[in-house]
Amino acid sequence: MGTLSLPGVLHRQSFPAFFLSPFSAVRSFVLLAIVLCNLQTKAQQINAIPVDTAYQKVLADRTAKIVNTLDIKDAVLYKKVQQQLTTQYIQLNAIQDNNKSAVAAIKAQQLEKAAADAAVKNEEEKKATALKQLHENFIAQLKTTLNEVQIEKVKNGMTYSILPVTWTAYLEMIPRLTPEQKDKMYAWLVEARELAMDEGSSDKKHAVFGKYKGRINNYLSAAGYDMKKEGEDWAKRIQATKDAKQTQN
């Protein structure tokens, strides 16, 4: 998490005049104490996200698998990156869980549909904002410890390598894609990966990519590709390759 700061509190010119008069010294000290207390409480809340033992083991295994792909020789750096990943997963889980609880509470109130929908929408917007900020902070942290190639591996590791697998499949299925088509398709897959990184389950990560694959397929269909036929022809090529290998053996 970023370092907490007290903008304006420690600078004399930032206080209103009545806080600086000799007759209100007590009031200024009280104000400062309240601000410091509130910030300390906030920091404690951020750092006290409960994590059960079973989930800790899952995170240890999951993050180790990702970090092991980065070819990090320095043990201290290895642990630092693993901790960055672990913290990210914990905070993602907290945001997702808080959203689920808030939505459940709204539904339990049995509000009128319009009011319930508006309240749920507000919670979803709050979640999206929190996830976006967390995502940006996470990538900024990774950039202080890893190079671009390693960061790509982290992103793919957090999304089950769906991007490279899907990209390779499209290239093999339709070898005659134009450079422009490839650029647009790859950009969409990258966008999907950034969003999928913040989802809390495998199914939801795959669902994000599924949405973007649908967009890509519609784009290619509009460009004149018969996606059903392209898929069938690709399957035949794969089978032919398998048959040829078996014949050679």
Secondary structure topology:
Layout: H1 17-20, H2 25-47, H3 53-67, H4 75-108, H5 113-143, H6 148-158, H7 162-173, H8 179-196, H9 202-222, H10 227-248
Helix pairs in contact: 3-4, 4-5, 7-8, 8-9
Keyword list:
249 residues; disordered N terminus; 3 domains; globular
Number of strands: 0
Shape: globular
Largest sheet, strands/sense/barrel: none
**How does the helix and strand content classify structurally?**
mainly alpha
Residue-averaged pLDDT: 84
Number of separate domains: 3
Uncertain parts:
1-48
Report the portion of residues in β strands.
Answer: under 5%
Number of helices: 10
- Topology as a string of helices (H) and strands (E): HHHHHHHHHH
What is the CA–CA distance across the termini?
57 Å
**What gyration radius follows from the Cα positions, in whole Å?**
25 Å
Helix content: over 70%
Overview of this protein structure:
This protein has ten helices and no strands. With 249 residues, the chain is mainly alpha-helical. The chain folds into three domains: 12-47; 53-147, no CATH class; 159-248. Helix 4 runs antiparallel to helix 5 (113-143), helix 7 packs antiparallel against helix 8 and helix 8 runs antiparallel to helix 9 (202-222). The longest helix has 34 residues, at 75-108. It is globular. The N and C termini lie far apart (57 Å).
